[in-house]
Design goal:
Largest sheet: none
Helix content: 55-70%
Number of domains: 1
Number of strands: 0
Strand content: under 5%
Order of helices and strands: HHHHH
Radius of gyration: 17 Å
Distance between the termini: 38 Å
């Protein structure tokens, strides 16, 4: 439990942005987008490798193979 007062919740949520359908497609399938999940996963993998938390970071191609945008694309059709 966060133990926040109701008036504190609004302040804590400032800057939180929920994605819409179009942004979800970019997030999951548009490798040229700054929003692309694979780029963020690659950054995290490199960070974890640098911190010696994992032995090797996966490449963007390996990470992209793990992302399946099928359900998001079907929802926007």
């Amino acid at each position: 439990m966060l133990q926040l007062k109701p008036e504190e919740v609004g302040q804590e949520l400032k800057g939180v942005q929920l994605t819409n359908r179009e942004d979800n497609v970019k997030l999951l399938s548009d490798a040229s987008s700054d929003m692309y999940l694979g780029k963020h996963m690659e950054s995290l993998a490199n960070f974890l490798k640098d911190q010696e938390q994992i032995p090797q970071a996966m490449t963007i191609d390996q990470l992209s193979a793990l992302i399946d945008p099928t359900f998001v694309k079907a929802a926007t059709a």
